[in-house]
Amino acid sequence: MKTRKERNMKNFKRIIAVALVGILSLSAGCAATQKEAAPENSVPPVTESASPSAAQSTPASDVTVRVALGSEPDNLDPMLSAATDTAAVMMNVYEGLMGFDQKGDFIPAIAQSYTAAPDGLSYTFTLKKGVKFHDGKDCTAKDVKYTYEKLAGLTGEKPLNSTLSQELVKVETPDDYTVVLTLKQRDAGFMSKTILSIEEEGYADNSTKPIGTGPYKFVEYIQGQKIVLEKNENYSTIAERKPTIGKVEFVIMTDENAKLMALKSGNLDIAGVSAPNAAALGDDFSIVQGPQNMVQVLALNNAVKPLDNLKVRQAINYAVNKDEIIGAVVDGKGTKVESFLSPSMATYYNDNIAAYKTDIEKAKSLLKEAGYEKGFDLTITVPSNYQTHIDTAQVIKDQLAQVGINVNIQLIEWAQWLDGVYTKRDYQSTIIGHSGKLDPQDFLNRFTSTYDKNYFNFTNPDYDKLVTEAAATTDISQRAALYKQCQQFLVDQAASVFIQDPHIIFAVSKKLDGLQIYPVTFFNMSDIHVKS
Amino acid sequence: MIKKAGRNTNFKVGAILLCLFLILLILSLICTPYDPNKMNTQAKFQPPSFQHLLGTDNFGRDIFSRVMKGAQTVCFVGFTSVAIGLAAGFILGAVSGYLGGPADEVIMRLMDAQMAFPGIILALVLITLIGPGSVSTALALGVTAVPRFCRITRACFMQIKELDYIKAAKSRGASVPRLIACHILPNMLSPLIVTATLAFSTAILAEAGLSYLGLGIQPPQPSWGKMLFEAQAYLLTNPWYAFIPGCMITLTVLGFNLLGDGLRDLTDTKTL
Q: What's the pLDDT at A174?
C-alpha cells in the first residue's frame, strides 16, 4: 500500500515537473518575442548611426559577407558538377564565353562578340584580350578549345556534357583570340551552352583548387561548413561586374530555422527564406524577391477521361482562381503565369496572352456542354515532399468543388511520383513545379509529342511544328515571336492549368544592397555592395 | 475498487483527460462550429477569438473545428489498429501458448522477426505498399501491434493453463473453446486491457508521426500530426498554431498512458 502511494506521489511529481517545464518554455517563448519586439524600437536609430561610421572605418574590401548555401557542393569543378547550388556559387569564380543578365539575355563575357553563320551550323567567337586566370595566365582560344573539347568528348575521353556531345562536331582556333564552334544541326538553343565555365588548359586541380577568370578567387572549402571566396583585384572581363566586397563566405546551412537564427544573430547576411518567415523577419532585413524561372502547373493527363475533352480542361481553367492560390499558399509572393513559361524569361515570355479569367458560371456551362453537368471525380496526385504543392492542391480542391468537380488528393513519395506519374504517365492530374535554364525550349519542348517525358500526354502536330521551327530560328526576335505563339497555343488547348512562378525570396542584411535575382540560380556577389 | 481508483492519481488524471477527449469526440460527431475543410483565404491566421475559439490556419480554416474533426481520425485509427492488433495477436498468442511445441516455435520466431523491425519503419513499408489513407494507416499500425499482444497472450496462457483449476476443468471434459472462454480469458483480461490502452496511445503517436511525414491521413482531412507539420512553417509568425495540435497530441497520449498505468496498478493482484 505504501509503495503504491509513494509511486503515485512520484508520478504526480513527474506530472507537475512536466507541466512546469511546459510553462517555463512558454514564458521563455514570450520573453523571446518581447526581446525581438524591443529592438524594433531601439535598434534602427542605433544601426543608422553606426553603419555610416562603420562604412567609413571599414571599406567594402575589408567586409566579409556571409551567404547561406542550401546544400553541400557536389564538385567544385564546373565541368563535373551538376548541382544548381554549386553552380550558383562557382559562377563567381568561373566565366563562360557569354554571361547572362537578370532578364535571361546573353551578355559578352570572355567573348567580346559572336557571329552565327547564315546556315546556323557554326558560331564564331572573338575573345576579349587581357582576360586572365587567377594564376596570372592569359585566357586564350586554346583554353576555350580545351574546355569545349573536353565537355563534348572530342578528345576521345568520356563526354562530360551529353547535349554538347551530341551537337558539337569540332572546335577550331584560327588565332589566339578567335574560336569557331561547329554544330551537327541547327539549334538556336545552343546559345545556352555558351555560358559554360571556361577552364585553364591542362590545369587538373579544379576540383580542389578551382582557378577561373571570374570576379572572385577561390580561397578554401571546408566540407560541411563553408566555401570562402575573395575579391579578384585584377578582374576586368565584364566592367559592371567588378567586385567591391572583399570576402564572401558561403555557409552551408540546410535547416530553415537554423538560417533564421543565424540571420538574427548576425552570423548570416544573405539567406533564402520561406514566404511566412520573410514576413516574420520584419524590419531588420530587406526582402528581395522575384520569379525564379519556375512554372507551377496543375498538369492534366490529356489522354484520360474526362480530361481528354477540351471543354472539361477549359472548365477547370475557368474554375481555378490563381490569385487566390498565390495569396493563400505563398503569401502573395508569386507571379501569376498564364502559360508554360516564366516571366523571368522576359524576352520570350508572352505577357499578352488571351487567358482564362476565373468564371464559375462559364466553367459550369462548359461542363454541361461536355456532358458532365453533375461534375466528376478528379484525383490530384501530389509528391508528399513539396508542401507548396500540397497546399495548392487543397485550395484547388476547394475551388473545383464550386463547379461540382470532386477532388481527391493523393500524396505519394517523390520516387513513386517520378516512376508512376512522370515516367509511366499513370495518373489523372498532378501538381509540380518545372524549372528552366536560359533556353525557352527547356519549357515548351515538354509538350511536344516526341519529347520522352511529355507526361501531359499532349499531342498536337501543329504544336510540334511550331516548336521545331522555333528551335531552328537563330534570330532572337523571330524566335521569341514563335515561342510566344507556342504559349498561346497551349492556353487555347487548355493543355494544363499553369498557375504561378513562386518567388525565390532572400533576406538581406540592412547594411548590404544590390542583390539581384537571375533566371538561373546565381549568387552574383559583384552585384552586392555595402550601403553608404 | 472505486475507492481505490479514487486514491490513484494516475488513474484520476488519465480518466479526466480521456473524458475531455471523449466529450470533444462526441461533440464533433454532432456538429463542429465551422466546416473543418472550408477555406476562407481572406481570414487566414486569425488569432483565437470568440468567433474562432482557437483561431484560423494558413487557409483560414477554423482550427477548433479541425481539432475536433481530428479527434475522430485519432479515434478511428486508434481503435481500428488496436482491434486488429488485439484480434490477430490474441489468436496467434493463444495457439502458441496453449499448444506449445512446434506451433509455438514457429509463431514466436515469426513474431521475433517482426519485432526486429522498428514499428514505425514497418508501418512506413506497409503504407508504401498499400497506399496512404486513414484505413491503410490503421491497418499498418494494427499489424505492428500484433507481436505485443501475441506475447502477452502467450505468456498468460502458459501461466494459466498449468493452474490446478484448469487441469480440473480439463479432467471434467471441458472443451477447448469453453476452457479458453470461461476459464482462461477472464484471468487475463487485465493485462490485455492495460496493453490495449498503451497500444492505443502508441497508435495515436504513430499516426501523428506518419501524417507528419505525409504518409498517413491525406489532406484536407484533418489530422493532428498533419496540422503540427503544417504549423511548423509558421512557427515564427504564428506560434500558437503549432501549439494547439501539439497540446492535443500530448494530452491525449498522456491521458491514455496514465490511464493504462493506473489500470495496471488497480488490477495488479501481486501488490495487494
A: 93
Record: contact B44-A390, CB cut-off 8 A = no
Confidence at residue A43, expressed as pLDDT on a 0 to 100 scale:
33
Residue corresponding to grid cell 497530441: B249
Work out the widest C-alpha separation in chain A, in whole angstroms. 101
Same domain, A322 and A469: yes
Residue numbers of the domain that contains B182: 14-25+59-271
CB contact under 8 A, A277 and B236: yes
CATH number of the domain at A147, please.
Answer: 3.90.76.10
Tell me how close the Cα of A277 comes to any Cα of chain B, in angstroms.
7
Among A11, A279, A409, the residue with its CB nearest the CB of B9 is A11
Query: Is B132's CB within 8 Å of A410's CB?
Result: yes
Do B39 and A398 count as a contact with CB atoms less than 8 A apart?
yes
In a mutagenesis test of the A interface, which of B7, B9, B58, B267 is the best target, namely the one with the most A β-carbons within 10 Å? B9
Q: What is the CATH number of the domain that holds B108?
A: 1.10.3720.10
At B83 the pLDDT is: 95
Q: How far is C-alpha B224 from the geometric centre of its chain's CA atoms? A: 14
pLDDT per residue as tens digits for the range A234-292? 998 998 899 999 999 999 998 888 898 899 898 999 999 988 888 888 788 999 999 99
Q: Does A391 touch chain B (CB under 8 A)?
A: yes
Residue among A168, A162, A140 nearest A79 (CA): A162
> What are the backbone dihedrals phi and psi of residue A382, each rounded to the nearest 5 degrees, phi first?
-125, 130
Low-confidence ranges of chain B (pLDDT < 50): 271-272
What's the confidence (pLDDT) of residue B80? 94
Candidates B39, B219, B265; nearest CB to A390:
B219
Phi, psi of A148 (to 5 degrees): -70, -35
Question: Residue A410: enclosing H or E segment and its boundaries?
Answer: strand A406-412
A305 and A437 both lie in a single domain: yes
ipTM of the complex: 0.74
Q: Which domain holds residue A129?
A: 95-203
pLDDT on residue A482: 94
